Amino acid sequence: MHLNIPINPCKKIIIFYGYQLPMTLQVKELYSHHTILGGFVNNINIITISSDIGAGKKGAYKGPKTVIEHLNFNQKKCSFTHIEPLESPDNLKHEFAKGIDDIVRIQTHALDKINSLFTDKSGFNLIISGDHSNGHIGISAVKESNPEKKIGVIWIDAHADLHNPSTTPSGNMHGMPLAMSLGIAINPAAKNQLTDLEKALWSQLLQIGSKQICPKITPESLVFIELRDFEDEETAIIDQFKIKCFTPEDRKKSGVKKLAEQTLNYLSECDFIYISFDVDSMDPSVSEGTGTPVPGGLSKQEAIELLSFLLKSPKVIALEFTEINPDLPQTNSMVEVAADILNQLF
Ligand SMILES: [Mn+2]
């Protein structure tokens, strides 16, 4: 089916060189990976997607723009692409796929705007997105730009994000981006009964992109890190496809460096790697400012070390930060924590 719904124009903010923001933070030598990232490091495409349609609690749409105000990537050549939020007044009408019509529209629109940035020659991509349903945009952009290549995904998150509208307990679509990326179809026997329109919208979402590639990734090219809160339907998918999972217990046993090495070794067959970092992978002691905090996650320092080791791989083409909600009550500023991590990485 074709949805004839108008789409807001994307606003490309600005491109200029030697970009410098007012806050000064030292780039620590320990975390410097300039030589590893080679040509990438001085050429960063910063992409902000200010949509939080997929989240249960509103406010994460403010995260991307607020984080970039705190970035200080000295001497880097940065380009900025901003995707505006898009929300219809009645967008929550689909009980088991809240906002799915708007999510189809914004993902189609965003992918069209950004996929030219995801070839191996176009630089390193830093995506800061509102809620995690946007993760499907970045993964799709890598695949759409490199259709013959094998794409690996490192999903650093407390949650598995493997639900689809037929299994979700909440209807919030930020719990579904990996099901979208893996092309998981609606199960007619599952507990949630969907309308024909909802089934059609889900199938449209799985095939976004001009090449309509589905699935975008395969289960053996996916690794979870910090996974600790998931439902039975998600466990069933993980078990069925033997998806690689590192829990906080694994991290405590091996340490973050070993964990990063094991992850990259596991994905050695992949041509490109997309890293998605949901800030709820971190412990609530630093991540109160996210919609669904879960005890027992990474410390801020562990997050820096983990990402730093992973970014040493030249296969890593993009890093996404997501689910930063400045509107929630928080003792530590989630925006400042996220920006500080990024400033130390780049
Ligand atoms: Mn997530």
What does this structure look like?
The termini are far apart. Helix 3 runs parallel beside helix 6. Helix 2 links the parallel strand 2 (43-49) and strand 3 (77-83). The chain has a 9-stranded mixed β-sheet with strand order 1-3-2-4-9-8-5-6-7, with helices on both faces. It contains 11 helices and 9 strands. 54% of the residues are buried. It has one domain: Ureohydrolase domain (Arginase, Chain A, 3-Layer(aba) Sandwich). The protein has 346 residues and is an alpha/beta fold. It has helices at 34-37, 63-69, 100-114, 135-145, 177-182, 196-206, 232-241, 248-254, 256-266, 300-310, 334-345, and strands spanning 11-16, 43-49, 77-83, 124-129, 151-156, 222-225, 244-246, 272-278, 316-322. Manganese (II) ion is lined by residues 132, 157, 159, 161, 278. Residues 132, 157, 159, 161, 278 line the site of manganese (II) ion.
Q: Count helical runs.
A: 11
Counted beta strands: 9
- Strand order across the biggest sheet? 1-3-2-4-9-8-5-6-7
How confident is the prediction overall: mean pLDDT? 87
CATH class: Alpha Beta
Low-confidence stretches: 1-40
- CATH architecture descriptor: 3-Layer(aba) Sandwich
Number of domain modules: 1
Largest sheet geometry:
9 strands, mixed
Order of helices and strands: EHEHEHEHEHHEHEHHEHEH
End-to-end C-alpha gap? 43 Å
Classify the helix fraction into a percent range: 25-40%
